[in-house]
Write a structure and sequence with these properties.
The protein has about 425 residues and is α/β, with parallel strands linked by helices. The chain has eight helices and 28 strands. The strands form eight sheets. The protein has a six-stranded mixed beta sheet with strand order 7-4-6-5-9-8, with no helix packed on it. α1 packs across α6. The chain is elongated and about 95 Å long. It starts with a helix and ends in a 9-residue tail after the last helix. It binds adenosine monophosphate and magnesium ion. The site of adenosine monophosphate has 19 residues, from loops.
Length: about 425
Amino acid sequence: MIPLDEAQRFVLGLCQPLAPVELALDDALGCVLSETVMATEQVPSFANSSMDGYAVRADDTAGAPVSLAVIGSVMAGHPLEQTVGPGQAARIMTGAPLPGGADAVCMIEETETAPDGRRVVIGRALQPGAFVRQPGRDVAIGDVIAPAGTVLTPAHLGVLANQGARTVMVHRRPRVGVLSTGDELFSGSGPLPPGRIRDANRHTLLALLRREGWDGVDLGIVGDDESALVELFSSAASRCDAIVTSGGVSVGDLDLVRVVLEKLSAGKMRWMQVAIRPAKPLAFGVLADSATPVFGLPGNPVSAMVSFELFVRPALRRLGGHGVVHRPIVSATADEDLHREVDGKLHLLRAHLGLDDPASWRVRTTGGQESHQLRSMSEANALILLPDGTGVHAGEAVSVLLIDPDGLGSATSLALAAPHGQPGTS
Ligand code: AMP
Ligand code: MG
């Protein structure tokens, strides 16, 4: 057996970022920028109002309250042609360009407009610049707005759109073929024939890919048949950046994936017994003809998913250009005794991680921990990392790998989390 980190290093060592491509901005969410983007436009591009109110000359407001003559209205998108002179004001809406002569805005709540709208009383003295969004205060020309390696979030796409960008240079999303192997797999929808099982793995693995935003290619089911496997690997390699199989990597008589991989990878395949439970066996190699990485995951449904999390996901993130490839690990309090035997392996227990109060993570297992018991995986958002030994007692700290950050939930309400309300417009 080899330690988990050694196996992960071996896999990652054979995976390189895919070549950059130009993608439309709206197709690039979650992709990794391959080059640094610098601002060529300042944002905001002109001085504008952050409030609905009146544009004024700050000097005029020194003796507030003061009465000023209203010379017009300025709306967003419609600059005012007149200049605001001494003793004058212009009605202004949020986002409208500050008229010439004005250098501050008084919010509408602190004014009183005459019934005919021709004069306004400004209720307080203003500093120059009050409620004015100055040009370049968000982004200045030459600013690095997103360095190479940035994982594009919705906000990044907005920042890039503010620059007039229509496309971005990013690492391509990996396109990944998924294949289930085994004579026992039954693809029909009717009752199961004797001794056959349904194919869970193709669905879990394709969904795991989809959740990351990657393109999954359904390669179907192949029986325990060496020549069919050879043919499928070769044809899939021409249209996929990586291939993920499940089944056929143990020591059984018909564990042919590793045999076929051995042949097609010209000695670059490694069949590993990783010191973890579940997901001990892993065959990983790079096809000799195409340099396509192939992951031979174990067939047990939980093992296949755990192996995906530990090996496939990090490797595909590397293909996609990500710098950070592993999931976060947090320390949590065990809600129950977690007994185990000494066996030289790291145990990964399906578990649910939750916030007890805002500062305290708690974790409990979600059911049966045999590697065919997929139901407990469906209730898990985390894997407890239980090192070799005899386990831990309830109340002790354990390390937990977070595998479904969206499944965390929250013990706090948004109202409690945001006590500092800011005045302003939306
Ligand atoms: P193997 O790795 O081929 O020895 O398979 C290990 C176990 O996983 C066996 O009980 C298989 O029947 C089961 N298995 C293999 N492939 C799948 C699959 N696609 N879906 C569900 N179970 C599977
Ligand atoms: Mg099999």
